[in-house]
Specification:
This protein is about 45% helix and about 20% strand. With about 525 residues, it is an alpha+beta fold.
Length: about 525
């Protein structure tokens, strides 16, 4: 009997955990809780409607929830009592414990049952605030399968009473407060009264269920009543097993199958096939879930194609302009050289500039051989040397085995430009040094660009890859690599402030972009 009550409560705990996981994984909700700045009226209305629909759908479908509030940063507009500022909760007793724990915290105070969850991104780790769930006490502890004379008590992890099904004083709470322990199955003597007792842990809540009965009630039943009860119970159990067996074959197995597939969807597998030939409610629900998954996959594909188109357009724009300031400097230098030196230098500069633009544009293709990309990079560096009157030194270290592979076009030039503009040009004393290397490393292509400038810290580097800054070229390179090759590849930083910086570019071997322009 104790196990049945335990399963009843743990089913409701599972409901709460599942809905909590849905809120934690909702990317749209995370975006709303991290928006900065003033939004127009249409955007505010859309965001408030989304928050309301998301939370109220959970509250209306599950009677275990009385109310849900998300506490987030001050810069996020409040939305009734569904979305509030963190400052409104900082003075509450449960706030510190909730905001500092990544696990769901179960609490009971002054007759109210509630839970708190630190709100953070399960994928990116970003903190968004705190989720507060006020729970329905009567719904959580509604069970009618306790036998007459049996007592139920539920205590929290600090041995404080949460629930008791009788009006009598608790016998478990003072017993535990005295330093005694209760076995999972055993007997207990309190005030000369003997009790048979069973105890069970309740999920991940820290609560414990105690189910007990006085021994005198167990010995009171006459023999005839026992035989009658045993006979009736046996018949009921046999009948129940027959009904359950038939019910399992025709109904429960289908529900379990649907539940298992929904778990796979919850874990990220959106390619689950869900269809049913039955016309009843379970069959309709299965087919509706299958249609929903197909629509989600279609929307994801449309979104992915849209991202590809956008990034390709950004890359084309970058190819079209590359850097007008850079082109202006080259042309000015050519004019100056025409006056100051002979035609051989002018020819060299013009030839290098021609080679650079030829390989950079690459006849409109996104894929280029590693050899051509490196030659393009060297042309760019030599032009920069002329612009800067050979004011810095360059060292090359290239493993020629990588020439047999391919890569995305115009990956290295923006990083070289950043190393010169934000590194070498900032040197106040001494001569600048640019070191370029290309190698095979752990089965991957790796390019290292080092400058002995003032360097940059990790925060500055990652901001350059995530936000609109004057290092837009590096962010564009990072986005293209992630889009074409996945999150295992891209840019990384080595070095500390005042010690120079090395930007590493990691690409897959035999790298071929899946889509060409």
């Amino acid at each position: 009997m104790a196990d049945q009550i335990k399963e009843n409560i743990e089913y409701k705990i599972h409901q709460i955990n599942s809905n909590n996981g849905s809120l934690m994984l909702d990317r749209k909700l995370q975006e709303i809780c991290s928006l900065r700045g003033t939004q127009d009226i249409a955007t505010q209305y859309e965001n408030k409607t989304y928050v309301y629909n998301t939370i109220m759908k959970i509250v209306n479908v599950n009677d275990i929830f009385l109310h849900i509030t998300i506490y987030t940063e001050d810069f996020v507009p409040e939305n009734g009592n569904l979305l509030l500022s963190l400052n409104r909760a900082r003075h509450l007793d449960w706030f510190i414990n909730g905001i500092n724990n990544k696990q769901l915290q179960w609490l009971y105070s002054d007759g109210e049952l509630f839970a708190t969850q630190k709100y953070y991104g399960l994928l990116d780790g970003n903190a968004y605030g705190l989720i507060y769930y006020r729970l329905n006490y009567n719904s959580m502890f509604s069970f009618s399968n306790a036998l007459p004379g049996y007592c139920i008590e539920i205590l929290d992890k600090d041995n404080r009473l949460i629930y008791k099904n009788t009006d009598n004083d608790s016998i478990i709470e003072p017993f535990l407060a005295s330093g005694y322990e209760v076995m999972d199955n055993g007997s207990l003597s309190v005030d000369r009264n003997e009790y048979l007792i069973m105890s069970r842990q309740l999920g991940n809540t820290g609560w414990k269920l105690y189910y007990y009965v006085p021994v005198r009630l167990m010995n009171y039943q006459p023999q005839s009543f026992f035989i009658t009860t045993f006979t009736v119970a046996s018949i009921c159990i046999i009948t129940l097993f027959l009904i359950v067996g038939l019910f399992t074959k025709t109904f429960v197995n289908r529900i379990k199958s649907l539940h298992q597939k929904m778990i796979e969807v919850e874990e990220g597998n959106l390619n689950v096939e869900m269809s049913s030939g039955y016309k009843d409610e379970i069959g309709q629900l299965t087919n509706q879930c299958g249609n929903m998954l197909r629509n989600v996959n279609e929307l994801q594909q449309i979104n992915y194609q849209s991202m590809l188109t956008q990034k390709d357009a950004e890359f084309k724009a970058l190819q079209a302009q590359i850097n007008p300031h850079f082109l202006h400097n080259i042309l000015s230098t050519i004019s100056w050289k025409a006056i100051q030196i002979d035609a051989e230098d002018i020819y060299f500069m013009t030839k290098r500039l021609s080679d650079f633009y030829r390989t950079a544009i690459n006849q409109g293709e996104n894929v280029i051989s590693v050899r051509d990309e490196i030659e393009n990079t060297i042309s760019y560096i030599e032009l920069q040397l002329l612009i800067h009157s050979n004011s810095f030194e360059v060292e090359y270290s290239i493993d020629e085995r990588i020439y047999n592979y391919e890569m995305l076009n115009l990956i290295l030039q923006p990083i070289i430009e950043n190393a010169i503009g934000h590194g070498i040009e900032k040197i106040l004393k001494g001569k600048g040094l640019l070191r370029f290397s290309a190698e095979l490393y752990n089965g991957k292509l790796r390019f290292n660009i080092y400058d002995n400038g003032p360097g940059m810290n990790a925060e500055t580097f990652w901001n350059a890859l995530r936000q609109e800054t004057n290092r837009y070229g590096m962010r564009n390179v990072q986005d293209r690599i992630k889009l074409y090759y996945g999150n295992d590849y891209g840019l990384s930083l080595s070095g500390e402030t005042n010690e120079g910086a090395t930007v590493m570019v990691t690409l897959p071997l035999n790298a071929r972009a899946p889509i060409k322009s």
